[in-house]
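Changelog excerpt

This revision adds worked examples to the README so contributors can see how folded entries look when concatenated. The first example is reproduced verbatim below.
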Amino acid sequence: MIKRKQNKIISLIFICALCAFFGVTVSAQGVTDSAGLQAAINEASPGDTVSIAENITLTGTLAVNKSLTFKGENGNVSIFPETDARHMTVTGDNVVLKFDGVILDGGNTGGGIFSSADSLTLEDAEIKDCKAGNGGGIYSTKDLIIRDSRITGNKSSANGGGVYGFEHITISKTVLSGNTAAENGGAVYIDDHA
């Protein structure tokens, strides 16, 4: 019994040492509610991982201004927005958001991501069933890169059911399916009048 505990402690120390060596830290373990998630985002350093233990329904829009990884602690978890609000607003420079087992699910009541970041990169994002006036899934005012993601079932009452953007949009290895708009761009709409 003592030997097993020693082995576990040694393994944990080794894992922590590896994380420190490679510059990977976990800013929060087991986030379970909206306030805790925003607090974990606020306290995290750029490049940190925020671990989410269970599904969360937000009580406001998350504010994100740095590169982070959102990880489902025990497999896939879903984040649901407050009614008629977006999941998150992203600001800052060269922000990279990675998702590992975390789904932004609008539940047909709220929108996905609003970004005014100079450049936003989304990796392995799953954004589904979101709705908004423009850009049900994603609304970006600047450069947007989407990689290895799924943007499905999102709706716009105007333009850009899946994605609405003003500047450069690069999408690769991403599924865009079932997105609809009342006017233009069910999947993607680029506003060239800005």
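The second example, added in the same revision:
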Amino acid sequence: MKSTIYKHIVLEMTLFVTDIKNIMCINDLLLIRWASFKKKKMKHIIYILGLISFISCSNSDIDFERASLIVNNQKIELLTANEIFENYLIKKSDYLSNVISHIENEFLENAEYPFIIESIKTEITPDEKLFGFTEKIKNIDFKKLTEPFLNKIIAELPGPDTKILFIPSNPAFVDFFRNYQIGVTAITVGTGKIIVSIDPTSNNWQEQLPYVLAHEYHHSVWTSRNFKTKDFTPLEYLIFEGRADSFAKQLYPEVNSPWTNMINQVEEKKVWKIIKPELNKRETKMNDLMMIGNDEIPYCSGYTIGFNIVKKFKENNPNINDKSLIDMEPEIILELSEYEK
């Protein structure tokens, strides 16, 4: 049924655009086309109006949906991009201009890690799968869903005002992530700038969401307090991720986080030997290799190693909590973890 409706909508919109290329506003468009719709079934008109009612006179008028919370005197702004993705589904072209440009305009100003946006720039095919993802996300009340998590997370680690965007995952990558039982992925663009990608058809995205929010929020807080350069050494990157996972696991120990146990002990020792010579170098490809993997390094190995270093540190130093650990130098954490023993 949804497929039929979707194709009908796209056909009608194509007729609209063909007939009124010089019309600047959708209200005028509706007036001109209304006569041709009078004899059509009312339910089809309702579907069409429901999808296009948000369209305004230009791309710049389309905006994110916004909600906000105040938690411990911190402003938390929750964004979705339903209108932006629906507009892209109608235009069926130029993903960078119709989707990514909105995200960049919202998040890149003063961002410490602007390059991380590249990870979500792969074009999403504007097809029925994306339509289905967008429809499911549109029906989620993220303020109601995330408020309990955010209260818990921020109570444990106060930080800066934070903006969180929720968008659909790229359906082309869903099968890959499902192989690893991952329903939610996210990036931190900088202080108070988090983007969360959700596969709303996965069976564990709601379970993983609070953990992922805690992980990325920790990145944001660390960045607000300790950022010096985006050119991390592999050691700095391992501890950056390890601290975030350790913080999230402390808050949500029951949540399955596959990336923290992606490799066994034998594999971990092999990967550590590969990483170790590059540990304190900058401008090295090892940062990507130890996370993404290659023929020698399994996928997400760096997350597992970083998590285990911080885990061992906490076991050896139980008097140091996350509020203190966040500001410690990676070299000290590695040394006191006795990771290699």
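Reviewer comment on example two: Residues 1-41 have pLDDT under 50 and may be disordered. The chain has 15 helices and five strands.
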